[in-house]
Amino acid sequence: MAGNERKDPLSRFFSRLKGASGNGQRGPDQRKVHFSIWYFILAVLAIFWLQNILTAQQTNRVSYSQLKQMIKAGKVASVIIGPDMVTATLKEKTGDKKADKTVSAVRVEDPDLVRDLEAQKIKFSGATDDKWLSALLTWVAPLAIFFFFWSFLMRRMGSGPQGVLSVGKAKVKIYAEKEIGVTFGDVAGIDEAKAELEEIVDFLKAPGKFEKLGGKIPKGVLLLGAPGTGKTLLARAVAGEAGAPFFSMSGSEFVEMFVGIGAARVRDLFAQAKEHAPCIIFVDELDALGKARGLNPIGGHDEREQTLNQLLVEMDGFDPRSGVIIMAATNRPEILDPALLRPGRFDRHVAIDKPDIRGREAILRVHAKEVKVGTNVDLKKIAAMTPGFVGADLANLINEAALIAARRNREEVTMADFLEAADRIIGGLEKRNRAMNPKEKEIVAYHESGHALVAMTLLNTDPVSKISIIPRGIAALGYTQQLPTEDRYLMTREELLARLKVLLGGRVAEEIIFGDISTGAQNDLQRATDIARRMITEYGMSKKLGPLTYVREGRSAHLDLGFGPREREYSEKIARQIDDEMVAMIEETHTGVTKILGERRNMLVKLAGILLEKESLDGEELKKFQDEVRAAGCVEPADDQSESRLDSSPS
Questions:
Q1: Do residues 244 and 201 touch, judged by C-beta distance below 8 A?
Q2: CATH 1.10.8.60: which residues of the chain?
Q3: What span, in angstroms and rounded, lies between the C-alpha atoms of 59 and 412?
Q4: How many whole angstroms separate alpha carbon 507 and alpha carbon 522?
Q5: DSSP calls for 327-363
Q6: Is the peptide bond before 142 cis (omega within 30 degrees of 0)?
Q7: Of 25, 164, 242, 267, which has the highest C-beta tally within 10 A?
Q8: Would you state the CATH architecture of domain 173-352?
């Protein structure tokens, strides 16, 4: 039967080679065969083997003298004299049957051969060499193999994303409607952005509704937001909701070292998109391609600017009624070329901010569907513990909690696993095996207790949720965690001053208890200095310098790059005044913190003792400690201007 037909190795080899040089399309069960030079070597060896099989006669070789003796002895029945070989058929009796055996010998110039054959009355005939078969196997077959090998290489060089001759083709990833698998139901925490993009979905589904009124859909949609907020996910959800093909490409994939390649890839991308319209083109990290022109100090006519020019031309050239929507994502909109942002190109700008507490809870619920969550897990509490987390951070939190639960052989992920995962992400990996001598451990305990006690004392601070003296991360010997009760978008001057006092609380505690200071406050001092500088130079919170800003912000509003260098826009005199004001602010804060902890020394010693015993205190244990202190009547106001948190009635 045809289904059971077996192929010889040579047939299987050619079938594999044919599959390797096909059009690149294969079924779901067909494996991709990669070409190897060994295939070509095996093909050449197979040709030589086949030539030997077909041209060589299946005879026994003997010497010419032996053949002559067989003829004279009457053992030969017939002879065929060829140009190179003499083949003889021997007479041999086996029982009652007569069997022929063939031998051959290399022909030599012997004029007596014919006379001997006639004397023995042996039939003989002549034969010519079959040149066409030999030429076919010797010349035509190798040429065919070389031609096939050459054509295969040319196809590989000229097609596909890895082809040498295809550098001008866009290395775009194309997702069909069924391959996207993402809808608005998979996107949470950014409801405002989803509402903005519903119009794009409506246009892709029913463009006639807009065209009959003369309206034009925006050509381009620019998604702005911090890394991990879900820009790419939202773009794929738009394509999934609309049921349209999705062309995804990174901005850096357009730019190459060869001049003109990026522009060619832009043209090819738009040509492919027009063939699959209606569809969505998504360019991730647009700032790699669309950086403002003229910023190159070497020259303005470089490859990147040519690519950008071609993108601008293509966005102007295609018909908005063709159904091709361009979406792009970036977290640095301030460096984009203004020509990209004007109406007619990227008309609509959709800002995707970090989610609030309700958005974080919704994101957690989406990702929690993929894991077995215990009944004691409170996702709302986890959302409150993770201010500033974006979608990618929350997905990582869920995954870390699942890994911790699996490591402990649990059947489901519990609340303790989520809390440990949050501590690991925020504070770093716990290092219980790090050896600390008792003196250092005591210093760390008083240091962290100083932070916590100042935070519990002042009114305008976030409540303390955890204190730990277990080393974490690279250099953290302990940490004090404060979690806000609600999402905040503004901070007052009093709140910033309170944050300064909390940062200096650890160093002041060391001074009061040990009469000396350690290097453990290095990070606290750095953060305190940055806050003081910003209050004076950016927020206009200095009474001496007045409501002025002295720096020009040069970083993205969507990137948390820390407090890097900024452009200076003030004189040396103002610089000295800024330095003097910073020193005065830090010294005044230091004096206030010394007064707070000095008046509460007993509380500091007791809290440090509990921390040395348990190594870690959470919010409930800290609340219990506060209640004990309040019951003992050891609470006093922090200073003349601020009310003590411990004196105030609990909310």
A1: no
A2: 357-427
A3: 78
A4: 9
A5: EEEES-GGGB-HHHHSTTSS-EEEEEPPP-HHHHHHH
A6: no
A7: 242
A8: 3-Layer(aba) Sandwich (3.40)
Tell me where in the chain the CATH 3.30.720.210 domain(s) lie. 60-128
Angstrom distance (rounded) from CA 416 to CA 143: 72
Tens digits of residue pLDDT in 379-423: 988 988 888 888 889 999 999 999 999 999 999 999 989 988 888
| Tokens 């792009």 sit on residue | 328
Residue 208 to residue 220: CA distance in whole angstroms: 19
- Interior/surface letters 381-412, b for 16+ CB within 10 angstroms, e for the rest: ebbbbbbebbbebbbbbbebbbebbeeeeeee
All CATH 1.20.58.760 domain ranges of the chain, comma separated, are: 438-632
- Annotation says 448 is catalytic: yes
What is the average per-residue pLDDT within 145-173? 59
pLDDT at 646: 41
Beta bridge partners of residue 90, listed in sequence order: 76, 101
Sequence ranges of the chain with CATH classification 3.40.50.300 = 173-352
Strand residue runs (E) in 395-548 = 464-468, 479-482
* Cα separations in angstroms, 251 against 172, 187, 287, 331: 11, 24, 7, 13
> Under 8 Å CB-to-CB from 330, ≥6 apart: which residues?
222, 223, 224, 285, 286, 287, 290, 336
Q: Tell me phi and psi for residue 211, to 5 degrees.
A: -70, -30
> Using CA of residue 514, residue 518, residue 520, residue 523, what is the dihedral sign?
positive
Q: Which residues, 6+ apart, have CB-to-CB distance to 235 below 8 Å?
A: 223, 246, 280, 282, 327, 329
Residue from 314, 249, 244, 248 nearest 279 by CA: 244
Q: Topology of 438-632 in CATH? A: Methane Monooxygenase Hydroxylase; Chain G, domain 1 (1.20.58)
Tell me how far apart the alpha carbons of residues 248 and 173 are, in angstroms, rounded to a whole number. Answer: 5
Distance CA 629, CA 474 (A): 35
Task: Identify whether the C-beta of residue 461 lies closer than 8 Å to the C-beta of residue 505.
Answer: no
Angle at Cα 218 formed by Cα 213 and Cα 219, nearest 5°?
125
Closest CA to 621 of 419, 504, 498, 468: 468
> Nearest-CA neighbor of 386 among 412, 413, 354, 352?
354
Closest listed residue to residue 524, CA positions, set 459, 460, 471, 589: 589
Fold (CATH) for 357-427: Helicase, Ruva Protein; domain 3 (1.10.8)
Check 448, 494, 572, 636 and give the catalytic one.
448
pLDDT one-digit tens code per residue, 280-337? 888 888 888 888 876 655 554 567 788 888 888 888 766 666 678 888 999 888 888 8
Please name the amino acid found at residue 566: R
